[in-house]
Automatic annotation (TrEMBL):
Signal peptide: none
Protein's name according to its UniProt entry: histidine kinase
MF (Gene Ontology): phosphoprotein phosphatase activity; phosphorelay sensor kinase activity
Organism taxonomic ancestry: Bacteria, Bacillati, Bacillota, Clostridia, Lachnospirales
UniProt subcellular location: Membrane
Annotated organism of origin: Candidatus Choladousia intestinavium
Keywords: Kinase, Membrane, Phosphoprotein, Transferase, Transmembrane, Transmembrane helix, Two-component regulatory system
Pfam families in UniProt: HATPase_c, HisKA
Entry-linked PROSITE patterns: HIS_KIN
Enzyme Commission (EC) number: 2.7.13.3
């Protein structure tokens, strides 16, 4: 407020100075115009008086219509000077000159007053408009600071201030995005901690119980051996949870640098097959590979193998004995595509929107498989390669996961 008042005083002082200078200039110009008018009037009167004296026989009207000669001017000047009428005669003694001077001064005073008034009016309207714009901008900014993250300054027009407002809006958008990201991150961490606590609590409780049983049955070697094996199984389960979560956390934080190279897809899929063929054979299930040998994918071989392996593992868990899992790949100028299909029980429509959520477990499934992190990890790996993953499933018929990788050059 103090700064605004100071600026107003400076503006008023400037206007006052301009008014004074304008009035002084108007007075000076009025005097100059009156002086020139006096000279012109004297010239006319000298010519008329000299003409009348030199041409007494001519009509008097000719003195005011004829062009005066030098001799007429000289004689008229002498005649008028003899009665005190010359260039040195004060204007106050000449009514016509005095009236002309006063009229000129009035006009010259009114003109700057009118112009200055118009300028002041326009300036007032402009400043009021600017004040309203800044007041609205301040109100919007305060609303944003109070929590209205959608508040934006109106900046539909052109100009320096609107360019500034546009930059402020961009900054507000960035801050809103960061705040939303932080909120989502906070919610994710809360959910993650809750899920991890639940996943770790169960095996820890089991380990505690197994330990108590072993302590109370030390003499029973068979029981001790059985519960040691169960304890090891729970430990492996906790290891799976912890290691998978660490991988996901590193992928989320972009701490993993993908060692990408041109890899043969057939070899990658063969590696996945070898990892699961014993499991598949034990349950009389078939894993079939289909695709061109020369297909190449620019990727990190270890991570892509893990992503595909997690999907194949999920298919094995949800396929009945004697089922078939097919891994096929194809390539076009635009992208490389890998499909993992099975003829299992399929996925309920409601679950299709949630299967990539961490620790998600379907309410339609009564079977217990895994920890609910395999598919989320596969999705994170594919997206870290700039790819996409989608799923299509028909309950009772089977499920197909599709991985698409755009055919880009080395990054």
């Amino acid at each position: 407020m103090g700064k605004s008042g100071k600026e107003t005083k400076i503006l008023l002082a400037g206007i006052t100075v301009i008014c004074l200078v304008s009035f002084l200039a108007a007075g000076g110009i009025a005097m100059l115009l009156a002086k020139n008018f006096q000279k012109g009037l004297l010239y006319r009167d000298c010519g008329a008086a000299g003409y009348l004296l030199n041409h007494e026989e001519e009509p008097a009207v000719s003195a005011f219509t004829a062009v005066p000669e030098e001799k007429d001017l000289e004689r008229g000047r002498e005649a008028l000077a003899s009665i005190g009428y010359s260039e040195r005669t004060p204007m106050q003694l000449l009514p016509a000159v005095r009236a002309y001077r006063n009229q000129a001064a009035l006009y010259l005073f009114l003109l700057p007053v009118f112009l200055l008034g118009a300028v002041c009016l326009l300036l007032f309207l402009y400043l009021r408009r600017q004040h309203q714009i800044f007041e609205d901008a301040e109100h919007t900014i305060r609303g944003f600071l109070d929590g209205d993250t959608m508040a934006r300054i109106e900046c539909s027009q052109n100009g320096d201030w609107y360019s500034l407002f546009h930059a402020v809006n961009e900054m507000a958008s960035v801050l809103s995005a960061q705040a939303e990201n932080q909120r989502q991150t906070k919610e994710f961490l809360q959910d993650m901690i809750s899920d991890v606590s639940h996943q770790i609590k169960t095996p820890l409780s089991a380990l505690k119980m197994y330990h108590e049983i072993i302590e109370s049955h030390r003499e029973d070697a068979g029981a001790v051996s059985s519960f040691i094996q169960k304890s090891q199984r729970e430990i492996r389960r906790m290891e799976d949870v912890i290691y998978t979560l660490l991988k996901l956390a590193r992928l989320d934080a972009e701490m993993i640098r993908m060692e990408k190279d041109s890899e043969t897809v057939a070899l990658l899929m063969q590696d996945v097959l070898e990892r699961f063929e014993t499991w598949a054979g034990r349950e009389h299930k078939t894993i079939a590979l289909s695709g061109k040998e020369e297909t190449v994918l620019f990727c990190d071989a270890l991570w892509i193998s893990e992503a595909v392996g997690n999907i194949v593992k999920n298919a094995l868990e949800h396929t009945k004995e004697g089922g078939r899992i097919t891994v096929k790949w194809s390539q076009s100028p635009l992208m490389t595509q890998i499909e993992i299909s099975d003829d299992g029980k399929g996925i309920h429509q409601e679950d299709l929107y949630n299967i990539f959520k961490r620790f998600y477990r379907s309410r339609f499934s009564t079977e217990y498989h895994g920890i609910g992190l395999g598919l989320p990890l596969a999705k994170a790996i594919v997206e870290a390669h700039g790819g996409t993953i989608s799923v299509d499933s028909v309950p009772g018929v089977g499920t197909t996961f599709t991985l698409n990788f755009f055919s880009l050059t080395d990054e």
